[in-house]
Amino acid sequence: MKTSETQNGELRYIRGVGPKRSLIFQKIGIHSVRDLLYLFPRRYEDRSRFASLKDPPLGEPVTCKGEIMDVKFKPIRGMPLVEVLVGDAEGTLKAVWFNQPYLKKLFQPGQQIILYGKIEFYQKYLQMPNPEFELVEDLEAASIHTGRITPIYPLTEGLFQRSLRTTLKEAVDHHLDHAIHDHLSPELRERMDLLPLDRALREMHFPASFEELQKARRRIVFDEFFSFALRLFLKVKAIKTQYRSPAFLIDGKLAGEFEKSLPFALTESQTKAIQDLFQDLSREIPMNRLLQGDVGSGKTVVAAFAFLAAQRAGFQSAFLIPTEILAEQHYRTLLRFLEPLGIRPELLTKSTEPEKRARLIAELKQGKVPVVIGTHALLQEDVHFKGLGLLVVDEQHKFGVHQRNQLLRKTPRPHHLVMTATPIPRTLALTTYADLDISVMKEMPKGRRPIKTYWITRKKQPEVLTHMASRIQKGEQAYIVFPLIEETEKADLLAAKKEFERLRKTVFQKFRLGLVHGKIERPEREAIMRAFSRRELDILVATSVIEVGVDQPNATMMIIENAERFGLAQLHQLRGRIGRGSVESACFLFGEPTTEEGKMRLRLLTKITDGFKIAEEDLKLRGQGDLWGIRQSGEPLFRIAHPALDEPILLEARKEAQKLIDEIPGGTLEKTPFWVQKYLEQMPKTD
Asked: How far apart are CA 363 and CA 385, in angstroms?
């Protein structure tokens, strides 16, 4: 292969790949040699220890080596068989391959072979069915597939483990030096005790030992966190240096005036969050803050203060909310908080009547509307503000990135507050929301009582339903929730409908029931949920569409069917639909999990009500994939790094990145040190 081709880094020039096979790699996002080198094994098998053929362990994977003594081909109809007798100094073994007749030409007596698989007794002989194998000239020589710590790669259609491993060995041995350059500064590498990149990549694919693998993994994990943090802090610095927001010149007594107008006392968390907002809104540096708190912690009250501050400073506010029913609930809540202060918010959704919508749009443009609460309807082209100074977004992951940014492109840039009822583990917040300042609200408003949660077996279901009926008789309301999993969606939906009809005709025949699920058109679904909010229904039978969207303080009971099929975080979010009033609430988990992890989830939920603790446990149980639905994509944020398990490295990388960015004048990439620019160009992006 030509040097220029090697340096070009094209995948097709790797021996054994070629133009056709390179197209298969492209389907999984691998377009170059560098991309291939960052396709890391999903696990490793220790095939470095050879088992003796005298008395090998049975029924578990082992590696053995020996000489081929005999080769037989048995053309059995429908199941041709290749049988190879292998021996070492202490015993013999039959290796058998089914439906692979081409192998008969590959094996010859006298060849040296390494086998990997499970050994079993068959007709008084030791036998290894369909083992992985490697023919070697010298049993002591380095091998690829066996006789070592062997990488096991993620596969896709058209890629096979042996051939992929061979391709990676070729890339590591003959292309790595041309495709990869270590741009991390030697000083930083030495200070952080990190391997050179080329050595780290070699050891990630073909480790000499598990100790070397750990060192290699540390380097790659640091790179993932460090490059992510650098890009993030550069972005934050650019926003803070290139954009200006209106400084709200507000009286220091405003917070006190606001608190006095409320019919209840603020919690310490609410007071602290309001202080954070007061400081942010008083500056020209754009506020970019996350207000996170458990369901029912009183975030809307804090947002109300921000709206008051904007109005008093002469600016308009927009409150962007993912669903109509949630927008209506926020509207009613804010009307209660703001109207006594002389501020009347408006509501704009898809359902707003045309005549009212036209009037509202005109008044927004004239600056007559101080606060507008709305859904995606706020993002329509004909919606304009005279002076938008504050944008609050609820559950921002429900909106696309471009949608969220649409209202932030104004000049001057509006202050930005993100609200979420999803408690985020600290380590995940340091990555997913690392570009935001964070205010955390853990306390519940006074008068709220902890929700009692019970894990119930199917046998006790009639008893629970009778108890629920007696409480509904007293005027309380309840939810009954069913899972709706994509793989079994039709069966799940059928079960929910069937159970709805059964309950309506039997134990709950005296009560008013409603059924909502994702297959019902949105207007009808939201009408049913509104009816429940207005207490026109006693029981709402639903799928997880109610996870976010219904706020009914009178709802005090919830049954979650097949609870083991929900994630821990989702169970907590669902449970948060009750316990919003002063009456003690109860959540009943019907589930019979078969795995230890499933049992652990339900057990944890009966013991823990703190959403932040649950979030940490969920991160440990489920890993960093699309946890909490925070990200737009289901792909993990990092290739191998795990924010919780690798927290020490995460904190080191963030510290180093912050120090570097703080030393850079301005905030553009051009002003960063040259090695940082080259480093970021080479590192795969993790956003």
From this structure: 9
* Pair (91, 176) in one structural domain: no
Per-residue DSSP letters for 358-401? HHHHHHHHHT--SEEEESGGGGSTT---SSEEEEEEESGGGS-H
Statement to judge: residues 13 and 94 lie in one domain: no
For residue 658, the surrounding DSSP H or E stretch is: helix 647-662
Confidence of residue 100 (pLDDT cuts 50, 70, 90): confident
What's the number of domains the chain is made of?
4
Helix (H) or strand (E) holding 437: strand 437-441
Contact 484, 496 (CB under 8 A): yes
Residue 129: its H or E element: strand 125-129
Tell how far CA 264 is from the center of its chain. 36
Determine the Cα–Cα distance for residues 481 and 373; give it in Å rounded to an integer: 29
Q: What are phi and psi of 222, to 5 degrees?
A: -60, -45
CB atoms within 10 A of CB 42: 11
409: how many CB neighbours lie within 10 A of its CB? 8
| Residue 437 placed within a domain | no
Residue 239 lies in a domain: no
Beta-ladder partners of 478 = 539, 557
Domain boundary among 180, 205, 236: 180
Digit-coded pLDDT (tens) for 555-579: 999 999 988 888 887 888 888 888 8
Backbone CA torsion sign across 94, 97, 98, 104: negative
Q: What is the 3-state secondary structure (H, E, C) of 454-496?
A: EEECHHHHHHHHHHHHHHHHCCCEEEEECCCCHHHHHHHHHHH
Query: Residue 196 corresponds to which tokens in the numbers above?
Result: 């050179």
Of the residues 608, 634, 656, the one at which a domain ends:
608
Tokens of 361: 């749009």
What gap in Å lies between CA 294 and CA 192, rounded to an integer?
37
496-505 mean pLDDT: 88
Q: If you ran DSSP here, which 8-state letter would residue 10 be given?
A: B
Strands of the 539-542 sheet, one edge to the other:
452-456, 586-590, 555-560, 477-481, 539-542, 513-516
**pTM (two decimals):** 0.69
By residue range, what is the domain housing residue 72?
Answer: 49-147
Q: What residue type is assigned to position 488 of the chain?
A: T
Phi/psi of residue 449, each to 5°? -110, 140
Contact 305, 255 (CB under 8 A): yes
Q: How far apart are CA 680 and CA 226, in angstroms?
A: 10
Q: Which residues pair with 65 in a beta bridge?
A: 114
Task: Name the nearest CA neighbour of 571 among 537, 533, 609.
Answer: 609
User: In the predicted model, what is the mean pLDDT of residues 364-375?
Assistant: 95
Q: Are residues 350 and 414 in the same domain?
A: yes
Over residues 180-189, the pLDDT tens digits come to 899 998 999 9
> Hey, what long-range contacts does 57-60 have (CB within 8 A, 24 or more apart)?
57/119, 58/118, 58/119, 58/120, 58/121, 59/118, 59/119, 59/120, 60/118
How far apart are alpha carbons 345 and 352 in whole angstroms?
A: 14
- The 3-state DSSP class for residue 425 equals coil
- Nearest CA to 352 among 309, 393, 392, 382? 382
Give yes or no for a contact between 369 and 316, defined as CB atoms under 8 angstroms apart: yes
Structure tokens at 272: 């602290």
Residues forming beta bridges with residue 73, ordered by sequence position: 82
* Cα torsion through 259, 264, 265, 267, rounded to 10: -100
Q: Which two tokens stand for residue 386?
A: 């005279």
